[in-house]
C-alpha cells in the first residue's frame, strides 16, 4: 500500500496457483502478494480534485456552463458579465465536491480503523503486536477469543481439545450459528509453543484468490509429507473467534485478496434515472438552442444585407465586419442570451431540494427506533427521488426480515395442543406483553429469560404426565447441542442452529435439563434428579433425511431410539397403531402452519437388545467401508427408524422483525417485486417466505429450481415458464433478440400469481451467460423470488442482471458484510443497523434499524421526493423556456441585434430572487396526499415506476406550453403598447416601458401557474409566493428610481419607467389578460383529463376532499393468520449435522467439577392457573437480546435467548 492509500500490488501475470512458505517473508515477498491493508475509499489527496471534477463534468450541463464561461470572456460576443456564470458554477462544483469529500473521508476513517487494529504476529521468534495493515502472507499470527480474524488463515493449532475452534460467520453469510473448524494433527501438535511455531517451515500450495466462500483446495507440505487442505481448516477474514481461548494461523491471503474483499463490490458513482434523463434532455435543449441561434444568425445576415446598410451612418462598421461576420458574432451572442433555457440555478435548486428531502428522512420520528436509539439516516443526498421509482427490492433474510431468534411457541403432545391461552369461558385470548407468564421458580436451573404463558403445560409436567415427560426427555436427549457451565448452575448452550437451541432450552425450563455430554453419554436432570444416559449412536441430520435420531440406554438399562424431524418424513415411519393420534396431531400441525410456525414431529421406539447388537455391528462395518459408505449407512438408518411411536410436535417461530408481513404486503400492493437473496438453506428460506407473506398459499404455484447441471436448470426454467404461459411457443420463448431498445426485456403479464425458489448451485448455472435471460424472464413473471445458499458475489450478480435487462430501479437492503456487494450494485442501497456490525450501513445510501421502515421510506418519502422533483423540473423548464422564447420572438423586431427584451437586472434576478423561493417552497413542502392516505393507497406509488410524472413526453408537452405562453406574453403586450398613449396623452410605446410590461406579465403568469401546480399550501409557501411578487415591485421601483440613476447612470438606465408605466390601467388590464390566456389551456386540459381519464392521484385526492376531515386511523395491525395445510419444515442446521463430531469427542470441554441437581422440591405441587401464552427465545450468538430500554415500551416481540455468557 502506498502512502496515499493506493494499492501498489502489481502482478506480472494472472496468478494461477499460490505458493508460500511459513515464517519466510523474503521468499513470499518475491511473489508480490497483496498486503493485509484494505482500501474502500475512492480518492486520495492528489486524485480527489481531478477525479471529482471528472465525475461532476459527466453532467453535460456542467460542461456546458464551462463552455459558456469561455464565451463570456470574449468581449466581441458577450452581452453579460462573466461572473454571472462563474460564481454559480463554482458554487455548485464546490458544494458537491465538499459532500463527496466528506463521504470519502468517512471511508478513509473506516479503512484506517480496520487497518490499524492490532494483532500478535510471530516475528523473529517472538510475538509482536502489529497493525493489521502490516501483516503479510506467510506470517503466523495469534488470535484470542472474540477477536476478528485478521486475514484468510490456515488454522495451525488452538486451545481446544483436538485443535478445534468455534467461529461465527455473520459477516460472511449472515448466519450467527457457531461453526467448527479443526487443524491438521501435524500442525496441532505445535500448540502454543513459540519455539516450535517459529521453526515451522511448512509450504502451502493452494488455489489463487477467489470469491468462493464454501470451498478451498490446497496442500501443506511439512517434513516431506503432503497433507490435503479444505475449507474446514481455513479461517476467513470477517469471522469472529468464539469460545476459544486462543489459536494460531498461517496467513494465506491478505487484504484485497481475501475472500471477504473479493466478494465486496466496487464503489460506483450512482446517478438517478432523473439525472440520466436530464443529461439526454439537456443535449436536446442544446441542439434546440443551436437551432434557434442559427435561425437568428441567418436572420441577422439577411437583415444586414437588406436593412443594415441604411444604418451605417449611425452605426459605422469596423473594417472587415461584413454581414457574414456579423451573423457569426450574432450566433454566439444569442448563445449567451438564450442560455437561460438551462440556467445553472437549476442544478443549485436541485441540490437544495435533495438536501431538504434528505433532512426529512433524518428527522422522521416514525422511522426512529427507540429501543436502540437509532434514527433513520440519509447517507447520500443525491438519490432521494429514485426512492419513488423502485420496482425491485432485493433483501437479505437473516437480520433483515428476521431477528434470528427462535422461540418455542406451541406444541402438541399426545393429541393435546399447548401454547394458546383461554379465558374461563373458553375463548382464546390474544397474547400481549402484559400477559402473565408461567412461573418456573420450581426449577433453579431454568433459564430466567424463557417466556411461556400456557400454565397447563407446566402443570402436566408437575403431575408427571408420562407422555409430556417423554416429550421433553426426547428434546433433552435428541440433539447435538454442546453445554458449558463455567459457574455452578449457570448453563449456556452452543447450538449449530437456533432451532435446536430453542428446543433444548424449552426442555430445560420444563424440568428436563441437558447438563453435559461425553462421546458416549448424555447427562440430564429429570425433574431434579441427575441421570446419565449412555449414547450408543447418533443418526445425524442431512438435507435428504430431514430428521435425526439418537439411540440411548437409560440408567435402568432400557434401549430407546428417539427421533425428530419433518412431519412428512416422520409420518412415513410411524407404527400403524398411531393413526388416530396422527390425525389429531395433523390438525394441530395445520393450525401451527397457518400461523407461519416451523413444525417438527417427535417419535420414539424401544429397541430389542439382540437386534441392536447385530445392527450396531453392521453399522460399524458400513461406517468403515470405503465404497458406497453413505448409501450403506442410509440403508441401516432406514431399517432401524421404522415402526416409531408418535409423541407429538413442536412449533417454533423464527422471529420476524416487527411489521415485516405488513410491509411486504404494502410493497406488493405498490407493484414492487421482492426478491430474497439469502445464504440460508432452501427450507429455512421457504419457511420465512411463507411467514412474512412473501409466498402465499393463494399463489397458483411455487416453482423450485434445483437442477445440478446447465441443461437441468434450463429445462426447469422452461417448464416453469410454460406453466405460467402455456400458449407461448417453445421455440420463441427464450430468443435473446426479443428485447426492447438497449437490450431491455419487456415485462410480461401472466394470469395468476407465482413464486420461484432457486438454490445456490442452481443459481450458479442460471447466471451463466447462456441461461441468464431465461432465468430473468421466468423470475420476472413471478410475484416473489427466493434465492437460497447464495454467496455475496452472487447477490450482486443477480442485482446486476436485473439492472442490465430491465428498465427498472432496484433497491438492495441488508444488515451484514455479506450484503455489501449487493448494496453497492443496486441503484439504491439500504443498510439495517442490526446485530451483524456496521459494514452494510457504511456502504449504504440510506440506513435505519428495522425492515418495516422501508415502506415509509418508499411509499412516503420516496414518492413525495419523486413527485416534488418532477413538479419542480416541469415548472422550472416551463418558466425558463417561457422567459427565453420571448427573447426569440423579440429578435424579429430588433433587427436580430442580440438586444435583450428585458432589463438586465431583471435577467439577473429572475431565477435568483423573483422565482427561486416559490419553486423551492413547492419542491420542499408540496404533497398530493398525506402519509396516512399514502399508506392506505399504495397504488399511488405506481406512476413513479412508470416515469409518468417526468419523461421525454412530459418535457415535450412542457416545451409546447412554454412556446404558447411566450407567444401570448410577447404579442399581447406588443399589441397593447403599439400606438398607445397615456391618460395624459403622452406616448408610452418605448422600449423600456415595453420591457417593464413584458417582464411584469411574465412574472404574474409563471407565479399563478405555480399556484395551480401546488396541491398543499402552507404558510411558508404563501409567504414565498406573495413575498416574491412584493420583492419584484420593491426591487423594480428601487432600481428604476432617480437616485440610483444619478449614482450609476450606466447601470440603472430605466429611470422612472416603473412608476410611469405601472400606474396605467391598460397596463394592468394587459397583465390580467395575458395571465388568463396563459392559464386557460392548462385549466381546460386538466378539467377534461380529470373528467374523462382520471389518474390514481386524481381519484385519491377526490376522496380526500370528499372526506373533508382527517381520514380515519388505519386499521389495527393484527397478527396475520393463514389457514393452510402446508407445514413449514424444520431447519436443523444450515449444513451437515454435528453427529460425527459429538461422538468423536473432539468438541469436549473441561468438565465442571461439582454439580447439583439445581431443583427445589418439585413433587406434585401446583400453582394457580392464570390464562395467557407464548414462549422463549434462543439465539446462538450469546449477545443480550432486545434489552429493555428505560422509559421505552417493550413489545410482545421482546424475546430472550439462552446464552448467558457476557463475553459472547
Automatic annotation (TrEMBL):
Residue spans of biased composition, Basic residues class: 1116-1125
GO cellular component: plasma membrane; trans-Golgi network
Catalysed conversion reaction: ATP + H2O + phospholipidSide 1 = ADP + phosphate + phospholipidSide 2
Cofactor needs: Mg(2+)
Record-annotated membrane-spanning stretches: 80-98, 280-303, 323-348, 872-893, 905-925, 954-974, 994-1012, 1024-1047, 1067-1089
Domain P-type ATPase N-terminal, residue spans: 21-86
UniProt record, GO biological process: Golgi organization; phospholipid translocation
Keyword Transport: yes
EC number assigned by the record: 7.6.2.1
MF annotations from Gene Ontology: ATP binding; ATP hydrolysis activity; flippase activity; magnesium ion binding; phospholipid transporter activity
Residues given in the record as ATP binding sites: 396-398, 500, 541, 564, 598, 678-680, 789, 795, 818-819
Bilayer disposition of the protein: Multi-pass membrane protein
Protein name (Swiss-Prot/TrEMBL): Phospholipid-transporting ATPase
Species for this entry: Gouania willdenowi
Gene behind this protein: LOC114470314
